């Protein structure tokens, strides 16, 4: 990249850049001087929310609360709410703003010599301003919005005036030194509460300050630092009162709730105790543990008694059967282990009688009456024993039936012990829970009462409101630097955008970047009418020097010829107005002044322009007349004008024909060129635009060099695409490009005003502007 070229590409627009810098920097300077600086005021407070939990009924443990994340979102929402801010607005009268009138700006002040008392509600205040001037008679009040003035007589009046929403009077301090305030002007701004709240909310920010989320940073931005500090202090005071008020409400609600719950739990506890009492009564339970022991023992006793009774039944049945099998003369057994003393005594008496019978039998015979009488008695005794045993057996069976029934009852009662234990356990658990909750509620109520007795806020002011007197807006240094950068970059951006969107041809680079294989022949500067014809052999004008350079470059494109014939130079362009006729004419003059025989042919039969340089009419005879008349001689139509050069002949286009394409494609035109080559060193053809008509392409093969003329800041770069297509197809051969109409002063890459002035001015030599200023 050629940095120098890029620099001068933008530097040529330095006046606009300078104007932009002056405007932006001047506007920034004026803005800084006229706008009141905005300062930032901050205050830091701490809110320990853990203290609030003492007055609450917590359903989680202390460890759970310590793990719980604490945030101050509720407090932030409260402080920024409209209701809360409305209290600040009303308490500080933020609806009314006081300013001291100045030449460039009004300065916000707090100490004013008068007091404003509104006569309407703050919500109904109008959004307006009043200019107030203290005069000897009283106050002169004017309203710019309604263009009306009021003169209030007296400095201590409290009268109301129609159209004024306030009353005004001097402060005691101002009354003592009235002359100091006379003729001083002030501005009072009024606004309704809604607007004041909106302005306050936009200037206020509340954010957490640390990672623990226990500190709040209050920030207020305003032009009046003292007013900002008052606002933050009032916010802290109101927030502190709100916290205490919320705690008081929480305390009252907590105690009321605890009293209600204590009453409910007391009733529930009594109800459970009544249920337990009825259950014990219905189940004949005094003490559950003793009841369990008694029922267990009773069950065991009944079981043992039943077992003993069944054993006696078995023994009794054995005894009855044994006695029945025993003969009447044999002794009965006494080891039946019967728990019947009567039976045992009868058995002893029977055995005793047996012994007596045996003694009698030893002394007497079996027929002894005593013996026989004793046998009868033995029989009767045996029967009595059997009857007694039968009766005892019946008694045992009855006892067995009763024992089974009692045992069943005892077993049932024993089996019901776990159920009754569970029921009583549930009742006891419910009762214990109620008692524990009841005691907890009593304890919580006592704690709440104690906390309510020493109720205090958990808000602490860590840093009181402080103002940073380094203005946050506007910051002069950064503001001026920003204005300078904007003033510099804005025009450069526009210039850059304009250059990027610019599709016009300006210099050689625009051509070489796209098609480097197409030779660049040079440039033709833009000249006024007076300089247009100054192209004599000794001329040192710009156009003369430029066309000499152009011819020199064209010479390198001319092919070497074996025969001594003239060269054909074809001048063409893409569209009309690019200056091909101008370039063809001046190049013809330049070449002829180099002692070369030149024929200039106007081959643009549709829109001829060459006649203007000779002050002739378009209708004069010329090429079209020759081509349409095969018997004529083209030399008869030549114009020789020695005003430009004695070596140059001109064949104008002639009358505009209806069929220019047909005329240029007939053999007469090619015959003319061949004949002219023998008579002239150079034949220069001014042709029609190739993009508009095909006339030029029909005879372009006759040219030795094709000079394609483009116009500075006029010809589109897309034209080069078409030129390249013509070259590829062979429709144009040996093409070179010329840029015509280059400005003397502003074309980047070609600064003729400074580079060529020393050559073309014979008497004066131009100097750069900075040297001229130094010399003057």
How would you describe the overall organization of this protein?
The protein has 776 residues and is of the alpha/beta class. The chain is 51% helix and 16% strand. Helix 9 (225-282) packs antiparallel against helix 13 and helix 11 packs antiparallel against helix 12 (369-415). The chain is elongated and about 220 Å long.
Walk me through the topology.
Blueprint: H1 3-11, H2 14-34, E1 38-47, H3 62-67, H4 73-79, H5 82-92, E2 96-100, E3 107-108, E4 114-118, E5 128-134, E6 138-143, E7 148-153, E8 166-170, H6 172-176, H7 178-181, E9 185-190, H8 193-203, E10 204-208, E11 215-222, H9 225-282, H10 288-325, H11 341-363, H12 369-415, H13 417-453, E12 459-473, H14 476-501, H15 508-512, E13 520-525, H16 529-532, H17 542-557, E14 567-573, H18 580-592, E15 598-602, H19 623-628, E16 639-640, E17 648-651, H20 660-664, H21 667-679, E18 682-686, H22 695-699, E19 705-711, H23 719-729, E20 735-742, H24 752-755, H25 757-760, H26 769-775
Parallel strand pairs: 13-20, 14-18, 14-19, 15-17, 15-18, 19-20
Antiparallel strand pairs: 1-11, 1-12, 2-3, 2-9, 4-8, 5-6, 5-9, 6-7, 10-11, 16-17
């Amino acid at each position: 990249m050629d940095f120098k070229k890029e620099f001068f590409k933008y530097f040529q627009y330095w006046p606009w850049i300078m104007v932009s810098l002056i405007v932006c920097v001047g506007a920034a300077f004026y803005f800084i001087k006229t706008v009141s600086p905005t300062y930032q005021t901050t205050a830091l407070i701490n809110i320990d929310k853990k203290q609030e939990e003492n007055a609450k009924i917590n359903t989680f443990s202390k460890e759970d609360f310590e793990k719980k994340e604490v945030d101050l979102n509720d407090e932030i929402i409260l402080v920024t709410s409209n209701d809360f801010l409305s209290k600040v607005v009303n308490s500080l009268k933020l609806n009314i703003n006081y300013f001291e009138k100045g030449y460039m700006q009004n300065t916000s002040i707090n100490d004013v010599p008068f007091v404003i008392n509104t006569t309407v509600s703050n919500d109904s205040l109008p959004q307006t301003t009043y200019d107030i001037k203290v005069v000897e008679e009283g106050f002169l009040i004017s309203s710019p919005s309604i263009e009306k003035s009021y003169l209030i007589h007296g400095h201590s009046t409290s009268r109301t005036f129609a159209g004024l929403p306030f009353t005004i009077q001097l402060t005691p301090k101002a009354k003592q030194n009235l002359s100091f305030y006379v003729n001083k002007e002030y501005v009072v701004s009024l606004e309704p509460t809604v607007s004041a709240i909106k302005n306050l909310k936009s200037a206020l920010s509340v954010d957490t300050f640390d990672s623990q989320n226990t500190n709040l940073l209050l920030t207020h931005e305003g032009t009046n630092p003292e007013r900002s500090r008052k606002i933050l202090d009032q916010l802290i005071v109101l927030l502190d009162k709100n916290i205490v008020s919320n705690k008081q409400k929480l305390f009252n609600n907590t105690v009321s709730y605890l009293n209600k719950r204590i009453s409910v739990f007391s009733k529930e506890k009594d109800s459970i105790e009544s249920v337990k009492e009825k259950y014990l009564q219905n189940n004949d339970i005094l003490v559950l543990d003793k009841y369990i022991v008694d029922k267990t023992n009773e069950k065991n006793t009944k079981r043992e008694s039943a077992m003993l009774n069944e054993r006696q039944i078995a023994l009794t049945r054995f005894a009855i059967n044994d006695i029945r099998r025993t003969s009447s003369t044999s002794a009965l057994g006494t080891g039946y282990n019967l728990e019947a003393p009567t039976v045992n005594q009868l058995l002893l008496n029977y055995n005793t009688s047996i012994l007596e019978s045996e003694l009698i039998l030893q002394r007497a015979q079996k027929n002894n009456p005593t013996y026989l009488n004793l046998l009868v008695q033995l029989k009767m005794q045996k029967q009595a024993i059997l009857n007694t045993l039968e009766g005892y057996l019946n008694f045992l069976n009855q006892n067995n039936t009763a024992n089974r029934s009692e045992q069943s009852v005892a077993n049932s009662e024993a089996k019901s012990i776990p159920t009754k234990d569970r029921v009583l356990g549930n009742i006891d658990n419910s009762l214990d829970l109620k008692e524990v909750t009841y005691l907890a509620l009593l304890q919580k109520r006592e704690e709440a009462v104690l906390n309510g007795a020493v109720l205090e806020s958990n808000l602490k002011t860590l840093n009181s409101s402080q103002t940073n007197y380094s203005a946050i807006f506007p910051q002069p240094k950064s503001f001026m630097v920003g204005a300078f950068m904007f003033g510099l970059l804005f025009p450069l951006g526009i210039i850059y955008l304009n250059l990027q969107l610019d599709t016009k041809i300006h210099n050689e680079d625009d051509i070489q970047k796209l098609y480097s294989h197409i030779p660049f022949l040079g440039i033709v500067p833009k000249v006024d009418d007076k300089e247009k014809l100054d192209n004599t052999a000794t001329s040192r004008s710009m156009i003369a020097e430029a066309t000499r350079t152009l011819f020199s470059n064209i010479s390198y494109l001319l092919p070497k010829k074996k025969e001594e014939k003239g060269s054909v130079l074809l001048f063409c362009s893409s569209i009309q107005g690019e200056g091909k006729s101008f370039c063809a004419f001046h190049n013809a003059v330049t070449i002829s002044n180099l002692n070369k025989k030149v024929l200039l042919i106007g081959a643009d039969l549709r829109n001829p322009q060459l006649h203007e340089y000779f002050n002739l009419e378009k209708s004069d005879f010329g090429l079209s007349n020759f081509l349409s008349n095969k018997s004529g001689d083209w030399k008869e139509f030549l114009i020789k004008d020695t005003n430009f050069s004695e070596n140059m002949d001109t064949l104008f286009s002639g009358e505009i024909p209806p069929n220019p394409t047909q005329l240029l494609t007939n053999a007469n035109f090619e015959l003319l060129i061949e004949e002219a080559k023998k008579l002239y060193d150079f034949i220069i053809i001014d042709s029609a635009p190739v993009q508009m008509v095909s006339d030029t392409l029909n005879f372009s093969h006759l040219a030795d060099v094709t000079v394609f003329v483009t116009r500075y800041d006029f010809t589109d770069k897309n034209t080069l695409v078409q030129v390249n297509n013509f070259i590829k197809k062979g429709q144009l051969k040996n093409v070179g490009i010329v840029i015509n109409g280059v400005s003397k002063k502003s074309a980047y890459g070609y600064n003729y005003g400074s580079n060529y002035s020393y050559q073309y001015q014979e008497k004066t030599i131009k100097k750069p502007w900075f040297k001229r200023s130094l010399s003057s």
